[in-house]
Amino acid sequence: MIIAILVLFLTVVFSSFLVKIFPPTNSRWLKMALAFSGAYLFTITIIHLLPDVLLANENPHAVGYWILAGFFLQLVLELFSHGVEHGHMHVHEHGRVGALPFLLLGSLFVHSFLEGSILVDAGQGQVHVGHVHERNNFYVILLGVAIHHIPAAFALMSVLLSRLESFKKAFLWLLIFAVGAPMGVVFSNTFLSGLTSESLIYTALTGIVAGNFLHISTTILFETSPDHHFNRNKLIATLLGLSLAILSDFIHF
After folding, report:
1. What does the alpha-carbon distance between residue 28 and residue 250 come to, in Å, rounded to a whole number?
2. Among candidate residues 151, 143, 145, the one with its CA nearest the CA of residue 115
3. Whole-angstrom distance, CA of residue 150 vs CA of residue 175
4. How far apart are CA 241 and CA 67, in angstroms?
5. What is the largest CA-CA distance in the chain?
6. Residues 68, 59: Cα–Cα separation, whole Å
7. What is the rounded CA–CA span in Å between residue 221 and residue 32?
8. pLDDT tens-digit profile of 108-151?
9. Separation of alpha carbons 238 and 232, rounded Å
10. What is the pLDDT of residues 37-96, one digit of tens each?
11. pTM of the entire structure?
């Protein structure tokens, strides 16, 4: 649990400093990072989250409703976040300079909290991630969330900087997003660690996050290849994300 909290928090914190290296107007690296993270998220959802949560439940048809709920919940959240989760940077477009985007921060916090909530360490080598009790899956999902948060943190920091025009102020507000997933981890490990992966609450959480991942990853993959134009670098980044996710299925931590 401690490892998950530190990884998730520090990933967002360190990624926010990328704005000092890469200007928001130079989005080439961001598109590569998005293609990589989108492919990784999509793959782990297909080969980990979905099969295992379906197999762990006597009524797999009911799981589908939670997946749909997560998919469309993310659609609603993006009405307020303006797609920061998948690298959109609407600087100066959705509010005046000096104004804080509270709805954006709130939606990103909910999004991040839900992702952290499926990372539950039951101890003694058993880890509940809303499906199979295997430590390997815990780290596979943790890595996916961390990778996904890198471009999201960069995009959010860019938006906050455009509003506040101060790195220090922007960084302090960014911490709302940074603590979202760790708080989800703490919540689940404190209140839900005694439950099994077959329980309704784990089914709901995992189904919602799986739907969430499906929405984000497919949006990223479609946006990184608009009009289906061939782009070698994006294709390579996508294949690397796919390969890492598949390889992680055979690596035991």
Report:
1. 32
2. 145
3. 14
4. 23
5. 53
6. 16
7. 11
8. 999 999 999 888 765 544 444 443 435 667 888 999 999 999 98
9. 10
10. 999 999 999 998 898 888 888 888 889 999 999 999 999 988 888 778 766 665 544 455
11. 0.85
Closest CA to 221 of 86, 51, 74, 46: 86
Per the listing, tokens 């860019």 go with 158
Residue type, 201: I
Please, is 224 exposed, middle or buried when counting C-beta atoms within 10 Å of its C-beta (0-12, 13-18, 19+)? Answer: buried
195: DSSP letter: S
Strand partners, 120: 128
Quick one: DSSP state of residue 127?
Answer: E
- Kindly write down the DSSP assignment for every residue of 36-61, as one continuous string: HHHHHHHHHIIIIIHHHHHHT-S-HH
> Which residue has tokens 């920061």?
84
Q: Residues 151-176: what's their mean pLDDT? A: 90
Q: Is 95 exposed, middle or buried (0-12, 13-18, 19+ CB in 10 A)?
A: middle
**How many percent of the chain have pLDDT more than 90?**
41
Is beta strand 120-121 parallel, antiparallel or unpaired with respect to 127-128? antiparallel
Interatomic CA distance for residues 241 and 36, integer angstroms: 4
